[in-house]
Design goal:
Blueprint: E1 3-6, E2 11-14, E3 20-26, E4 30-36, E5 41-47, H1 56-61, H2 67-79, E6 91-96, H3 109-123, E7 128-133, E8 139-144, E9 150-153, E10 160-161
Parallel strand pairs: 1-3, 6-7
Antiparallel strand pairs: 2-5, 3-8, 4-5, 4-6, 8-9, 9-10
Length: about 160
């Protein structure tokens, strides 16, 4: 039973029963979660920004940081567990994309992240079946490989499922 902890720009996957994948404090960042019912594999990416064109070097070094590089990288990682590398048959869930520090709503990073992710998913013929996006609070997200259950938490709120 292991726990895979993801920081900003990280992504990970597992099909080992008993494993959990967890990321902390999603503000404007968005967590993309893939679950493959066929292989029982799960994967998650903690995406910070929508487009890698602003920093190609960082995208090469840390592909999970940008929506346009994170999703293909996560699909490639999950393919090592026997998943379809184009994402066929996967269940997709999205969390985060809040507006926690931009009080004037000037940059809208959370909204831009969510939109970019959805466009990239659509290009793969995928779409989210559940999402917990927006608001003005951060989220911690974990997924259990055994149960395939996504649990969210936020300070001052009871945990909830997605």
């Amino acid at each position: 039973m292991g726990q895979i902890i993801l920081g900003v720009g990280d992504y990970g996957a597992s099909n080992a029963p008993g494993d959990d994948i967890k990321t902390f404090a999603l503000g404007s960042c968005v967590s993309v979660i893939f679950l493959d019912p066929k292989t029982r594999a799960v994967g998650m990416a903690h995406i910070a920004l929508p487009d890698s064109s602003i920093n190609k070097a960082k995208a090469t070094e840390k592909p999970g940081y940008f929506a346009d590089t994170a999703i293909p990288a996560l699909l490639e990682l999950m393919a090592k567990s026997g998943c379809d590398k184009r994402g066929k048959g996967m269940v997709v869930k999205l969390c985060g994309g809040a507006n926690v520090m931009d009080t004037n709503d000037t940059f809208q990073i959370g909204k831009r992240n969510a939109l970019a992710i959805k466009k990239i998913l659509w290009s793969f013929g995928m779409g989210a079946i559940a999402e917990d996006l927006g608001g003005n609070f951060s989220r911690t997200v974990s997924i259990s490989v055994s149960a395939g259950q996504v649990t969210l938490s936020s300070p001052g709120k009871p945990n909830w499922q997605l």
